[in-house]
Amino acid sequence: MRHLMSPLDLSVEELDQLLDLANDIEKNPEKYAHACQGKKLATCFYEPSTRTRLSFEAAMLNLGGSVLGFHSADSSSAAKGESVSDTIRVISCYADICAMRHPKEGAALVASEKSTIPVINAGDGGHQHPTQTLTDLLTIRSLKGRLDNITIGLCGDLKFGRTVHSLINALIRYHNVKFVLISPEELKIPDYIRDDVLKANGVEFQEVERLEDAMEQLDVLYMTRVQRERFFNEEDYVRLKDFYVLTKAKMELAKEDMLVLHPLPRVNEIAVEVDDDPRAAYFKQAQYGVYVRMALILTLLGIQV
Ligand code: CP
Fold first, then answer.
1. Which residues are near ligand 1 (CB < 6 Å)?
2. Is 160 within the bounds of a domain?
3. 51 and 138 both lie in a single domain
4. How many C-beta atoms lie closer than 10 Å to residue 15's C-beta?
5. For site-directed labelling of 277, which of 73, 102, 165, 233 has its Cα 20 to 30 A away?
6. What is the chain's pLDDT, residue by residue, as a tens digit (305 residues)?
7. Residue 61 belongs to what domain range?
């Protein structure tokens, strides 16, 4: 039995196979429509979500399976003080696979240690969000045709942004990937990513504060939201929330084939006027999230079609 806590739980070969499977699902959805008949997915979400929870549920329904779960700590027995360990032991009796989101770093790992079914980390605090990373990799590979030889700009909240941390970990395994880390001083990438991941692996990166200084060299621009829920005080959030706003004018500085990605939800960091730009791929990215989660469910359940 396998769990997914981090994108590094999959080797590069396994990841490539998973992305190939996701592309096949995209092209031939009918082939997979009954692959999970009789199987149940539990979505245990202790934190709000639109895309991750609903795309997991859509993925299982597309595979002919069923879904059950809770969408907030308040609507589960966590509100009465039940531990994650006890909850997963019970969920293991009701479902075949579980996707879990929790505000505490490491919660999904704790669950996986007590679980008798595969557990997927659907986001744990500011730590990791591996299925968003699978979505991001599938989007880049499908739309750019490669995962190597790219320069990617990561912009916004690089301190608390778990999608950014997971994506860096995954992309450094590909050849000649360069990073431009675009953030205000207060939201710079944590030392454990800068030193232990980027520097330790000899990866080329630069840190800049102005988005305009990075635009012209990027193949992919990955925008992120400044996350109100991770701040300790409202004053800091208000000061930083509109630090970056991607506009049509800024897009004019970019390459003609640069991709704009965003894990969503967006607040103000991408102006709505950018949505019509053919380089804006964030809603396509959300669609790729369904295909890759279908591929992941099949893979972790050991189902071959
Ligand atoms: N990208 C993402 O994790 O979105 P949700 O918070 O809506 O799941």
1. 49-52, 123, 132, 263-265
2. yes
3. no
4. 22
5. 165
6. 999 999 999 999 999 999 999 999 999 999 999 999 999 999 999 999 999 999 999 999 999 999 999 999 999 999 999 999 999 999 999 999 999 999 999 999 999 999 999 999 999 988 899 999 999 999 999 999 999 999 999 999 999 888 999 999 999 999 999 999 999 998 999 999 999 999 999 999 999 999 999 999 999 999 999 877 767 688 877 888 889 999 999 999 999 999 999 999 999 999 999 999 999 999 999 999 999 999 999 999 999 99
7. 7-128+286-301
Tell the residue number behind the tokens 């779960």, with chain if given.
69
45, 49, 57, best to mutate for ligand 1 pocket (most atoms within 8 Å of CB): 49
For the whole model, what pTM was predicted? 0.95
Quickly list H helices, 172-255: 191-193, 234-240, 248-251
The three-state secondary structure class of 257 is coil
36, 62 contact by CB (below 8 A): no
CA of 183 from ligand 1 middle (Å) equals 21
Reading the block at residue 226, the tokens are: 């400044």
> Structurally, how many domains does the chain consist of?
2
Q: Does 235 map to a domain? A: yes
From the list 101, 225, 241, 293, the catalytic residue is 101
Mutate to test the pocket of ligand 1, among 102, 132, 138, 264 (most ligand atoms within 8 A of CB): 264
Distance CA 292, CA 132 (A): 9
Instruction: Note whether 251 and 290 are same-domain residues.
Output: no
The answer to the question of residue 2 being in a domain is no
